[in-house]
Amino acid sequence: MPAKGDDGLTLAPALQAGERHDTGGVRVERVSRTFASAKGPVHALDGVSLRAGPGEIVGVVGPSGCGKTTLLELICGLQAPDAGTVASAPAALMPQRDLLLPWLSAVDNAALALRARGMGREDARATAAPWLERFGLGGFEQARPARLSGGMRQRVSFLRSLLAGKPVLALDEPFAALDAITRAEMQGWLAQVLATEPRTVVLVTHDVEEAVILSERVLVMSARPGRVVSEVTVALARPRRRTDPEVVALRETVLEALGMPT
Amino acid sequence: MRTLWSAWRLPSAYRRASAWRALACVVVLLGVWELYVDLGGADPLILPAPHAIAQSLFDDRALLWSNFLVTAEEVVLGIVVAAVAALAMASVMHFFITVRQALYPLLIASQTIPIPILAPVLVLWLGFGILPKLVVIALVSFFSIVVTTLAGFASVDPDLIKLMRTFDMPRRRVFWSVELPSALPGVFTGTKIAVIVAVIGAVFAEEAGANSGLGYLFVQSIPQLLTARAYAAVVVLSLFAIALFALLTLAERLTVPWAYQPIGDPSR
Q1: Partners of residue B166 in chain A, C-beta under 8 Å
Q2: How many CA atoms lie within 13 A of B224 on its CB side?
Q3: Nearest Cα to B69, choosing from B217, B253, B246, B197?
Q4: Residue A29 above 80 pLDDT?
Q5: What would the mean pLDDT of B19-35 be, rounded to a whole number?
Q6: DSSP letter, residue B175
Q7: Nearest to residue B206, comparing CAs of B125, B110, B137?
Q8: Would the CB atoms of A164 and B166 count as touching at under 8 Å?
Q9: Nearest neighbour of B160 by CB, restricted to A76, A99, A147
Q10: B163, B165, B168 member nearest A99 (Cβ)
Q11: What superfamily does domain B50-258 belong to in CATH?
């Protein structure tokens, strides 16, 4: 039974010695990955390196098909690299689509990662319920996903990954499926949550502004085969607003690195 | 109780409209049939008029009812056996791709066995009791349930399985918590298809050797020139199949309501 913090958050399990991880951070060194496909081999990643220190938020932007999802799956241990090394603390994924189970209530969906580790149903609910309240989902504990808005579903999904208790979160375009207004709200909300619940975060996104607002560093990747073409440090105080001149300037720097007109 | 109510209420306007259409269709069909026989289009011993069948439904109600109970027991038990066995088989086939590859052709082959030929063999083998009927009914029902259940298992998003793996969810728990609930709507779909063929299977099984049941009654009535009674037995069988189908639909709405969420829900 994992220990609980003062605020009821289940703490990350202590790092186990050995295999894939050595710190609370992420270290990906010159990793390459190639898939076989009907049209021949696909080079998803080519010599990609990424480091995220404990508690750091690293954004990864790049065009479609630059291997961003592959990178996250390597970090989560769902794939093995063909070349290079991946050393990461245990990581939980948060997918682009919420992937909530339609037959479970919001609280049971949020508690799924706790249940996965063998926690009893009632204990898991009791742990997850105060978090729903904190995430602005109070009163919706018993609602099935079909009754929740897109933003609410994404918050339940995020909570589910957060409660997995892993020191690393791999966010795969977490707000891409939301409308522009909800997405902006959710970005501000995520920044707040991560300020109080620090995690090492690798945030893959299409949205350059999102990367600049949320990350401490932004890696810019090229089209397939994915390579890191630029790294932009975002040394700005929080909270950041999308209208801040520094945010706008950095956004343009990143867009330029992507080779897009600004 | 509220769940039960909402399950029925959901498409009420649509249901009422479709019920009227179905009823109107039946009335027209019966009218044409009645006229055709009354005007001498067919020998009533071969094609009895609807009013004669209705008369038999009333006159022979005790006989029909007692034989209906026999057939109903066979069909319900047979469907339950088939559904449980099919769910188990589909689960094993889902878990072990080698089993799926080995058994799928056999499963398809099992559907091509001509039941009227197999049924007498089963009676010789298993006797005149309920057992050969259950085997026939389960055999004809099994296939559709396995196929739709497998489709249910296959409908699970692979990304969802990956997500559960990053949560360190054990394989067994993934099955019980994620895959099995996803497959349940498929079990219902397959069972709804199966009840219809199960009723036909019951008739063939009774024809091969039985001393009661609607199929037996049908077979007995023809040589006695009680054609209307034979048709009445068929009417009861049809109503029974429709009732089973409706019951399964209701059970489906109550058990797997998420499979019925309207996509354009305005509350989203």
Answers
A1: 76-78, 91-93, 164, 166, 170
A2: 10
A3: B217
A4: yes
A5: 91
A6: I
A7: B137
A8: yes
A9: A99
A10: B163
A11: MetI-like (1.10.3720.10)
Shortest distance between the Cα of A165 and any Cα of chain B, in A, equals 9
3-state secondary structure of B183: helix
The three-state secondary structure class of A43 is strand
Residues B56 and B231 sit within 8 Å (Cβ to Cβ)? yes
Asked whether the beta carbons of A60 and A68 are under 8 A apart, the reply is yes
Distance CA A136, CA A254 (A): 33
Tell me which long-range contacts A180-188 makes (C-beta under 8 A, separation of at least 24).
A182/A149, A182/A150, A182/A151, A183/A207, A183/A210, A184/A242, A185/A151, A186/A151, A186/A154, A186/A155, A187/A213, A187/A214, A188/A239
Contacts within 8 Å (CB) and 24+ apart, B97-104: B100/B150
Q: What percent of chain A has pLDDT over 90?
A: 29
Spatial distance between the Cα atoms of B37 and B51, rounded to a whole number of angstroms = 10
Higher pLDDT: A199 or A13? It is: A199
What are the tens digits of pLDDT across the range B89-144? 999 999 898 999 999 898 888 888 888 888 889 888 998 889 999 999 999 999 99
- Say whether residue B2 is in contact with chain A using an 8 A CB cutoff: no
Residues of B in contact with A174 (CB under 8 A): none
Please report the sign of the dihedral spanned by the C-alpha atoms of residue A191, residue A197, residue A202, residue A204.
negative
CA-to-CA separations, A64 to A198, A223, A226, in angstroms, rounded: 29, 7, 10
CB-CB: which of A95, A116, A147 is closest to B267?
Answer: A147
Break chain B into its structural domains and give their ranges.
1-42, 50-258
For CATH 3.40.50.300, the residue range(s) in chain A are 22-90+170-262
Partner-chain contact A116 B162, CB within 8 Å: no
ipTM of this complex: 0.82
Cα–Cα dist A106/A125, whole Å? 10
Nearest Cα to B139, choosing from B81, B90, B74, B87? Answer: B81
- What are the tens digits of pLDDT across the range B160-175? 999 999 999 999 999 9
Instruction: Record the tokens describing residue A171, joined without a space.
Output: 């966010």
Q: Is 3.30.70.1350 the CATH number for A22-90+170-262?
A: no
pTM: 0.79
